[in-house]
Design a protein that fits this description.
Elements: H1 2-59, H2 62-71, E1 79-85, E2 90-93, H3 107-114, E3 118-124, E4 127-137, E5 143-152, H4 154-206, H5 209-216, H6 220-253, H7 259-270, E6 275-279, E7 285-289, E8 294-298, H8 303-315, E9 318-322, E10 337-340, E11 347-352, H9 356-375, H10 386-406, E12 413-417, H11 424-431, E13 436-440, H12 448-451, H13 457-464, E14 469-472, H14 475-488, E15 492-494, E16 499-502, E17 505-511, H15 530-539, E18 546-553, H16 560-573, E19 581-588, H17 595-615, E20 623-627, H18 632-641, E21 644-647, H19 656-664, E22 671-675, E23 688-690, H20 695-707, H21 710-726, H22 729-751
Bound molecules: adenosine-5'-diphosphate-glucose (ADQ).
Length: 755
């Protein structure tokens, strides 16, 4: 509208100005003409009365004078006639002007003496009139008297008002007409081509070649523009193909999975189709610091973010996630998107907005009070509320719509993350059967008996089976899922192919142990200068002490309480380590709106306080509890300085902290104490395994770690570092993408007509 006004306003100003000037001129001309008519009429009537007046004045016939004056009474407009004697006194006057008897009119004497007629506009009481006075002479030229003709001029004003009314109506009609015509022209000239161009870009973006054809055939400038853009796009496509071909060659040469190799694989396997990742947690969050009023961009403490970020950084694509930062809306474009990382845009982040109620029901409620405890064996009761389930379904639908909006025309690849989106694969598949969908389940999958308590089990399983591939961290979770599908759904489980067939659709179930970015000095973790480590040692007085470390989100599944109890027991049993041993716990508060998490925070606070009070000696306390969110760069020096890292999860899909620690211990001096209930324990077999529920055994494991000989530490760490670097996050992603594309091949082969 603003643009239209800018365009129309000058035209309107010119038209209005022109019209007003011509209106004024027309009004003036009309006024002059009316005046002229009036004067002429008055003069003619005055002269026509001269003879009759002469007779009256000569004969002093007052009756005749009265008759003459009264004859004006009947005329349509206000008119009058006055007969004067030679002294200028009124002999007869039309009744409506009888007040003239009392009016002083000095110019009458002048007319009598000069014998010259006079015509002028006069104000008689409330009336504006035209008065024409003619001296009446005898044959010798002597003055006998005067005759006056009076005309009302108000009709002139009425006529002019009418004229102005007509002019204004015409002007308004003209403005409206100009407005309409301009709108039509603007639509035809500007909006339609822009709209067509936008349509063209949308189809082009989605690779909809059929819908693009009519555009290219268009004649004129628009057709030329489309053809030019097509040429640019073609060159880009060719360039991408070339990279793909080079990728094939490189893929066969390299052994360890690297960022470049994954990039090549994705180009080789997915071609022009980019990757679409969906997760609840976003990789970058904008938060407003209330005290400074400034916004900061942070990376949330989340295993999913830690794993997926390096993949999209390497390969590009679009990541669709909940925009949960309180300043998130300030940093997106009109399509709710932004390029990230902020300093070096590698991929697109599309934020989906949720209301408070949606977040409460879908995220805190169904996902984290229902599914999270359902899938973790930690004896926390899952809560399933109908209202949360309803919200969960609605939010899954919202994300599905947001994903569908983005998908290109052919064979898109959608990679869905975690338990927040069990219904998404089916919702997407229903609208886009050609989409290849993988779902990765980052947490454990329970036994069928445990899963069975979920009131919405069938819808959840059906939703998940909309995916072509479902990935878990370890084979045991795959087996549990196959058992669950077998027992709870009407489906066929193929234990040879590890797939579930339901309603003619096959979903493959595979284990892909997730990992971290192992590049040293690049990616999420940079080689930290010694300076920072020295600074921490000084700050916490760690010099000469054995330092153990824990890095966790504050979650009851992470066994932070069990870890603290084990430290307490260790110091009880082996007091010689007092003042020589320090445990640092970095703890990021999470899901704090849930009571269980809220209570856990207080429980840990109290326990830390109690243990420190119990064992304190001089300035030394055994536990340094740092309860806050750290950036990845800030965690790094803690990993590097720690002699021991303790991962004590009661149940954990994988646990990336264990792997991060191993990657960071370049000097091979660290020991990892790892809960046997983590997925990571299957790979990191050189860690000291613990059952966190057994405080006694746990305390012994700490002693073992503290006293482990240097050579032993080195050997174990070397083995673990080899395992993690061979099975890094690039290999994890490559495994899923290779599996997906080879599944596609099986389907393609099946689709060939037999014979
Ligand atoms: P999470 O339960 O989030 O992930 P985890 O794998 O341990 O658990 O990853 C946590 C991540 O958060 C790590 O990258 C860690 O560095 C970071 N982090 C921890 N404490 C932090 C703090 N105080 N400040 C900042 N960052 C912190 C889920 C599953 C896991 C699975 C992952 C990936 O529960 O089992 O390993 O997904 O699949």
């Amino acid at each position: 509208m603003k643009r239209i006004l800018i365009f129309i306003l000058p035209i309107l100003i010119i038209v209005t100005l022109g019209f007003t000037i011509s209106g004024i001129m027309q009004a003036r001309f009309t006024e002059e003409k009316l005046m002229d008519d009036l004067m002429r009429k008055a003069r003619a009537v005055g002269e026509s009365l001269e003879l009759a007046a002469k007779y009256i004045l000569v004969n002093n016939d007052l009756k005749a004078a009265k008759r003459l004056a009264d004859s004006f009474q009947k005329r349509e407009r206000l008119q009058g006639c006055v007969i004067y004697n030679r002294e200028g006194q009124i002999l007869a006057v039309t009744e409506q002007f009888s007040y003239l008897n009392d009016q002083e009119r000095p110019y009458l004497k002048n007319i009598l003496s000069t014998k010259t007629p006079r015509g002028a506009i006069e104000q008689f009481r409330e009336y504006s009139v035209y008065s024409y006075i003619l001296p009446v002479l005898d044959d010798d030229g002597n003055v006998l008297g005067m005759v006056e003709v009076i005309y009302d001029t108000s009709y002139m004003f009425t006529t002019l008002t009418e004229l102005w009314k007509k002019l204004s109506t015409t002007l308004i009609a003209l403005i409206l007409l100009i407005f309409l015509v301009t709108l039509l022209i603007q639509r035809q000239i500007f909006i339609m081509p822009v709209r067509r161009l936008t349509q063209w870009f949308t189809h082009f973006q989605r690779g909809d070649t059929d819908k693009l054809r009519p555009f290219a055939e268009e004649k004129g400038e628009f057709g030329k523009l489309v053809s030019e853009v097509e040429q640019v796009a073609l060159s880009m496509r060719v360039a991408r193909r070339t990279i793909s071909d080079q990728a094939h060659v490189r893929l066969q040469k390299e052994e360890l999975w690297t960022e470049a190799k994954l990039k090549d694989l994705i180009h080789a396997k997915l071609g022009d189709n980019s990757l679409f990742v969906v997760s609840n947690r976003e990789p970058y969050m904008h938060v407003l610091d209330e005290s400074t009023g400034k916004s900061a961009c942070i990376r949330p403490a989340s295993g999913v973010v830690t794993a997926i970020h390096p993949i999209l950084s390497a390969c590009g694509g679009t990541w669709i996630a909940h925009g949960s930062g309180n300043a998130d809306r300030k940093f997106v474009n009109s399509k709710d998107k932004l390029g990230v990382p902020p300093e070096d845009n590698r991929y697109i982040l599309k934020r989906v907005w949720l209301s408070k109620e949606e977040e409460q029901g879908y995220y805190y409620g169904f996902s984290n009070e229902g599914l999270w405890p359902l899938c973790h064996n930690t004896h926390t009761r899952p809560l399933f509320k109908e209202s949360d389930w309803k919200m969960y379904k609605e939010v899954n639908r919202k994300f599905a719509d947001s994903v569908l909006e983005e998908l290109p025309a052919n064979d898109p690849f959608v990679f869905v993350q975690d338990y927040h989106f069990t219904l998404l694969p089916k919702m997407i598949k229903e609208k886009r059967p050609d989409a290849r969908i993988a779902l990765f389940w980052h947490i454990p999958w329970p036994t069928p008996e445990a899963f069975m308590i979920c009131p919405y089990q069938n819808e959840i399983l059906e939703g998940m089976l909309g995916a072509d591939l479902i990935g878990f961290h370890v084979q045991n979770h795959c087996n549990n899922f196959l058992d669950t599908a077998n027992r709870l759904l009407e489906s066929r489980v193929d234990t040879e192919k590890f797939s579930v067939v339901r309603n003619g659709k096959e979903t493959f179930i595979r284990a892909f142990p997730i990992s971290v970015d192992t590049r040293s000095g690049t990616g999420s973790f940079k080689v930290e200068p010694l300076r920072q480590i020295e600074h921490l040692k000084k700050e916490f007085e760690l010099e000469g002490k054995i330092t153990a470390l824990g890095v966790d989100r504050i979650d009851y599944t992470k066994g932070i309480v069990e870890k603290l109890l084990a430290i307490d027991r260790f110091l009880e049993k082996y007091p010689e380590y007092k003042t020589k041993f320090v445990f640092i716990q970095l703890a990021a508060p999470s899901r704090t709106h849930i009571k269980r998490y809220h209570d856990l925070i207080s429980e840990i606070d109290e326990l830390v306080e109690k243990i420190n009070w119990k064992h304190r000696e001089g300035d030394w306390s055994p536990v340094i509890y740092l309860k806050k969110h750290f950036s990845q760069d800030d965690i790094q020096p803690y990993y590097q300085l720690a002699d021991i890292c303790i991962v004590s999860s009661l149940h954990d899909g994988m646990n990336l902290v264990a792997k991060e620690y191993v990657v960071q211990k370049n000097d091979l001096s660290g020991v990892l104490i790892l809960s046997q209930f983590t997925g990571a324990s299957r790979e990191l077999t050189d860690a000291i395994m613990v059952n966190p529920y057994s405080t006694e055994e746990f305390a012994e494991s700490i002693k073992l770690a503290v006293e482990m000989p240097k050579e032993d530490r080195k050997k174990r760490m070397e083995n673990m570092r080899r395992v993690v670097s061979e099975n890094n996050v690039y290999r994890w992603a490559a495994g899923i993408i290779t599996e997906m594309t080879s599944l596609k091949k099986i389907e393609d082969k099946n689709a060939l007509p037999s014979g």
